[in-house]
Amino acid sequence: MKRIGPVVSVIVLLALLAAVPSHAAIIVKTATLTGAQETPPNASTATGSALVTVDTMTNMLTVNETFSGLIGGPAAAAHIHCCAPAGVAAMVAIPFPFPPFPAATGGQFIDSFDLTQATTYTAGFITASGGTAAAAEATFIAAFSSGTTYVNIHNAIFPGGEIRGQLVPEPATASYFVAGIVGLLIARRRRGWRGRATE
Question: Is the torsion defined by CA of 111, 131, 31, 49 positive or negative?
Answer without folding.
Answer: negative
